[in-house]
Protein: NADH dehydrogenase i l subunit
Organism: Thermodesulfovibrio yellowstonii
Amino acid sequence: MIELLPLLAILVSAIGAVIIVLIGERNPNLREATSVIAGVLKFSFVCMLIPPFLRGETIGLKIATILPGIELSFRVDGLGLLFAFGASFLWILTTFYSIGYMRTLREHAQTRYFTCFALSLSSAIGIAFAANLFTMFIFYEALTIVTYPLVAHHEDREGLEGGRQYIVYLLGTAKIFLFAAIVITYILTGTLDFRKGGIFAPEIVEENKLILQILLILFIYGFNKSAVMPLHSWLPAAMVAPTPVSALLHAVAVVKAGVFTVSRVLLNIYGEATIKAIGMQDLIFFLTGFTIIMGSLIALTRDDFKARLAFSTVANLSYIIIGVAMFSPLGIMGGLIHISMHAFSKITMFFVAGSVYVSTHVKRISELDGIGKVMPITMFSFFLATLSMIGIPLFAGFISKYNLAMGALQIGRPELLGIFIASSFLNAVYFLPISYKAFFRKPLQENRWQNVKENYFCAIPLLITALFTIILGVYPDFLMEIIRRVMQ
């Protein structure tokens, strides 16, 4: 029975999607209840995997053998469990938030919206529990396809253009770079299975250094959901989607799938010895460090609320890759735990942007003066998330940033520490003024917010995620224990 749990965790939301389609617009309450129930069941199945994992049991399931060394199979390990736990939990809150958002704005095609939402989480969990590159590739591509209708949801000129960039960038890089990388890996090794320490034997590394260098670049940009510059433009373009979709993209599934897959390649396809033997560690540090600083600087220039959050996400994703690429215990800990710490912080911020839009139809930060007086739950939650993003002690972001900083010193790379400090400073510069404007500035016009009130269907989920930035900052032990198993 326990071997079936990963498959059940993947399939439950896909089954929910079928039921949502069958219900359609006839009974919206039942349709949304199905989405919530599927989310709760998915999270329950993931939680049921934690005790046997912590006991050291091997949990895996082979579905089919395609070719020797190429299988459709699943396996539960610490890295996959970390990703699946965060994504499945946040999907429940995002579903409640979506109900308030979509109904209040009377959005069209809500059945399609909730269907694709459910399918996207099936794809994300499939990525999390994939036992090899072949299985991961299938679910990675599925995630791109089922989230396209969400990005292009509004079906206006902006929506279709944003959707076009999204699908061209992500499918294009996967077809051109990723597929080639997987084929070359199979030719060199005869397998696509993930292994601790990597799959390239020393003699393969010695004879194919240049090929392995090119191969790593293909993997990094083939798994383009990680948004490493310069192939990051799809991510801010996707902000034309409804805000719950933006939250899904930036916190729950899509971008986290990107950094998860790159982390999987670094840890379980290449490994520390291979990365250092082919001399690619410095290039990874350069690409990710450049992305962190440039993403932060561009965020500083954006007045559109979601655009500022989007470029902040571009920067923060590279925290995860740079931490894993350190291959030090503290670096890996900081990078991997940032998957969860950033998720709770950033989903709160996107929820806030959507809550403000639902109540006011305001999208620009420059127009938020005084909004905190009439939307105190929303804007106070944003302030908590800001403290986490900056890395203030007792908040989630501090745990990941502290470990990353110590990891940089552990491997003797103070320049990486400088990047983290500069990025945190820029986080403060572009996020704190939003809270200041909301609570301490007078509205642009008198009585501007006279008829504005909070939508509690939106406000309660974002308050919960904001509180989790404190809970995880004070009690991170559970997540850290899972990550320690990754490093054993």
Summary: DSSP finds 20 helices and two strands in the chain. Residues 280-488 form one domain. The beta strands are 59-67, 70-76. The first helix runs from residue 5 to 23.
